[in-house]
């Protein structure tokens, strides 16, 4: 049981204006609190919970707690000893909005030097209760931090730096993961280097606000293919001493802001009918600054710092937004907002009139904004997408015209309907989604997927599995960043085990002074109740050859290189300078992996990048390797990066889900795969499938057969046969219809040297409303068939001259 506040004695302590307990010129009484420090008795396993057994937990007031990494760091894992890992609040659930927060310093060249503590121990605080002391040396600078509990769920974090060189700055290394970091004036819409009085975070029912004077926040978020990825934040402090006040509250980011002493600007708003909903604070450019919830039964009063926000927008619990934003000045007295909507029931069945899981996208027409509906039923929502596990659910939409598109992946027909929603109206959208591509010999797999157990995703495990089932994926491999994830318990919870097979795995995300990229490893033993760091394969300050060996030592049968050429600093082939024309690379390049993700979902609108990935398969063949070709979504979200786009078809019947994973991995390891974001491309050379080695005839030629399958809604325009990474034959597909779209037997001649053959299909016409990406492309290509021209039993494709 957490001990609550007791006022016992008062003394004088210097505080800064607006930061009770921080340094400054104003005196205030010491608040004697009763807090305690105790070791963590078991590791955390929930999303964004990283405490391990033996870590110290400071239990403060109002049922709050702070966990500090105390246990020794594991070899080749990120060193975090002395970092604040978890923020706790009784009754709020096990997860929290913080990955880590640790003291650091920044040198004159702007390089960050985070502390890895030599000592983490219990020490008496001025308030008379136990606190946590953290100290150590980092690159000749000594950092000492005292963490003490205060009243009202607050904590004081005071750091003293000794030996800071000229031009250096005391700092904090703060990683909030995918949650919004709200700062002064700019809210969540910021990056760069800005001055701020606070940083506020929220998630999982916990709000956190960190305040300090003279603080600058710095972050450089990465933009890749239109997606902005989360990034750590560096907080810079003047001088050699910094005192920060940490507020921990129950609720959302608005509750965290309200705890700040300078949050004196109030507004009151709610729904006129008293229903619950959602609230956002925006600026004059309509940028979202901070969001929260509206409770049922009445309006909510919020408190904001000066300069943060100009208007308030309201959505009801069904996701329908009010037509007008309310200026904050108008909400000085209660502003009650009325929202009109219409009800739309959704129902999709297969060819036998049985419910079929469906992915449904809504698009506003004729000036109607795109909606962001919530959904009832066994279903999950993300932006303008909903995923219906039972093919049915109900949404409410604002009055207007919409296009409703439903799919069950690229082997089924498409449903597309336009509707007109009237205030208070009710209507049903019902249709059939039927299989039109015969995949009885194939298993559709996505070998690269993320959930809230990754530091850069907020998708729940339940929503992740629902998205896969609705897109018609047969096999899903969990690959969270440096976190072994097992989907199986959630598949049982959702009653999906007969439909969707799952495999525990990990995306090994290299870190340290030299980065090497990202690599999937699977299958791995389920993590059980172990701490994430204890079961993740080594990833920190480790060479590729050792990384691959450690992954196999952990049990992985498949090691896959992910997005091999993706900026910045996450593409292995770029980092190791693999030359696609010759196969040559840096000395530390290791090729002891099995699969290459030749098509990553981030490139769904970039055919040239996909071609680059296919040519990298040939680069490996120039090294004498026989890589498995895969294509995977790398999905981190429910809207954009959709699961199953692209996917890998493995040449084995899906069959029973109970042994599907074992059979699929065995078939995958033969190299018999084909990759697709729409068309299914089937290649044989001399009757053999990808992964096989064939001999040319006496005329130095081979017989090639290509078939391409797709539903009518998937554009297929051009088919190519590639030799050694370059198209050598071009064909045109037949007009759009369901099923077989192209079939041809041909001859590839002139095979004097070893070679590889690949088949490719694509279209310039975008996929359409099945994905939110306006220029998403339907691309399919096979794995490689290897031609042993000289009959020596090896295939070594010569480099380009």
Automatic annotation (TrEMBL):
Coiled coil: none annotated. Gene3D superfamilies: Metal-dependent hydrolases. InterPro entries: PHP_domain, Pol/histidinol_Pase-like. Transmembrane segments: none annotated. NCBIfam families: CehA_McbA_metalo. This is CehA/McbA family metallohydrolase. It comes from Pendulispora brunnea.
């Amino acid at each position: 049981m957490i001990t609550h506040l007791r006022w016992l004695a008062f003394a004088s302590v210097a505080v800064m204006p607006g930061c009770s307990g921080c340094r400054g010129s104003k005196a205030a009484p010491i608040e004697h609190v009763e807090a305690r420090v105790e070791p963590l008795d078991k590791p955390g396993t929930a999303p964004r919970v990283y405490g391990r057994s033996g870590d110290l937990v400071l239990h403060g007031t109002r049922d709050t707690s702070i966990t500090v990494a105390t246990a020794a760091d594991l070899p080749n894992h990120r060193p975090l000893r002395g970092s604040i890992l978890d923020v706790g609040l009784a009754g709020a659930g096990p997860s929290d909005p913080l990955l880590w927060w640790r003291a650091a310093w920044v040198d004159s060249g702007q390089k960050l030097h985070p502390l890895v503590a030599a000592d983490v121990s219990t020490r008496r605080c001025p308030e008379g209760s136990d606190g946590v002391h953290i100290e150590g040396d980092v690159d000749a600078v000594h950092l000492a931090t005292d963490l003490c509990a205060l009243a009202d769920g607050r904590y004081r974090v005071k750091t003293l730096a000794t030996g800071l060189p000229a031009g250096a700055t005391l700092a904090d290394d703060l990683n909030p993961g995918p949650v919004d970091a709200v700062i002064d004036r700019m809210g969540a819409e910021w990056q760069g280097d800005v001055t701020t009085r606070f940083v506020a975070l929220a998630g999982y029912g916990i709000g956190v606000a960190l305040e300090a004077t003279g603080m600058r926040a710095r972050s450089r978020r990465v933009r890749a293919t239109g997606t902005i990825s989360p990034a750590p934040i560096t907080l810079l402090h003047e001088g050699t001493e910094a005192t920060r006040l940490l507020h921990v509250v129950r609720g959302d980011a608005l509750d965290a802001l309200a705890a700040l002493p300078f949050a004196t600007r109030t507004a009151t708003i709610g729904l006129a009918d008293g229903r619950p909903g959602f609230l956002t604070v925006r600026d004059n450019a309509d940028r979202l600054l901070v969001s929260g919830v509206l409770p049922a039964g009445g309006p909510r009063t919020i408190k904001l710092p000066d300069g943060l926000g100009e208007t308030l927008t309201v959505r009801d619990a069904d996701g329908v937004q009010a037509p007008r934003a309310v200026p904050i000045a108008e909400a000085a007295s209660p502003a009650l907002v009325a929202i009109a909507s219409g009800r739309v029931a959704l129902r999709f069945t297969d060819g036998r009139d049985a419910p079929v899981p469906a992915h449904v996208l809504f698009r506003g027409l004729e000036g109607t904004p795109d909606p962001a509906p919530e959904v009832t039923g066994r279903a999950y929502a993300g932006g303008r997408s909903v995923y219906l596990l039972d093919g049915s659910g109900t949404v409410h939409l604002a009055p207007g015209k919409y296009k409703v598109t439903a799919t069950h992946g690229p082997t089924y027909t498409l449903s597309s309907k336009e509707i007109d929603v009237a205030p208070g109206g009710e209507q049903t959208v019902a249709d059939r989604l039927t299989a039109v591509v015969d995949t009885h010999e194939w298993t559709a797999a996505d070998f690269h997927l993320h959930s809230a157990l990754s530091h850069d995703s907020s998708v729940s495990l339940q929503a992740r599995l629902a998205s896969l089932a609705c897109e018609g994926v047969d096999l899903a491999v969990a690959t969270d960043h440096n976190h072994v994830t097992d989907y199986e318990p959630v598949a049982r919870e959702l009653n999906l085990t007969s439909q969707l097979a799952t495999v525990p795995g990990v995306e090994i995300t290299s870190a340290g002074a030299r980065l090497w990229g990202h690599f999937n490893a699977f299958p791995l033993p389920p993590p059980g109740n172990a701490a994430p760091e204890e079961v993740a394969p080594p990833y920190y300050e480790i060479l590729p050859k050792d990384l691959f060996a450690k992954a196999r030592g952990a049990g992985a049968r498949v090691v896959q290189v992910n997005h091999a050429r993706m900026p910045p600093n996450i593409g292995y082939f770029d980092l190791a300078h693999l030359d696609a024309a010759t196969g040559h690379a840096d000395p530390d390049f290791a090729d002891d992996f099995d699969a290459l993700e030749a098509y990553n979902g981030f490139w769904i609108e970039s055919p040239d990048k996909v071609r680059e990935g296919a040519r990298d398969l040939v680069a490996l063949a120039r090294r004498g390797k026989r890589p498995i070709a895969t294509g995977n979504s790398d999905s981190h979200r429910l809207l954009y990066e959709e699961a199953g786009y692209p996917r890998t078809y493995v040449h084995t019947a899906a069959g029973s889900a109970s042994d599907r994973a074992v059979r699929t991995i065995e078939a995958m390891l033969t190299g018999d795969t084909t990759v697709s974001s729409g068309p299914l491309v089937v290649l044989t050379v001399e009757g053999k499938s990808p992964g096989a080695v064939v001999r040319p005839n006496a005329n130095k030629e081979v017989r090639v057969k290509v078939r391409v399958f797709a539903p009518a809604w998937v554009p297929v325009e051009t088919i190519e046969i590639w030799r050694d990474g370059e198209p050598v034959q071009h064909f045109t597909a037949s007009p759009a219809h369901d099923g077989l779209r192209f079939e041809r037997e041909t001859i590839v001649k002139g095979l004097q040297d070893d070679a590889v053959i690949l088949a490719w299909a694509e279209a310039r016409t975008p996929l359409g409303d099945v994905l939110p990406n306006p220029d998403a492309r339907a691309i399919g290509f096979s794995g490689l068939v290897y031609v042993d021209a000289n009959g020596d039993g090896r295939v070594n494709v010569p480099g380009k001259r």
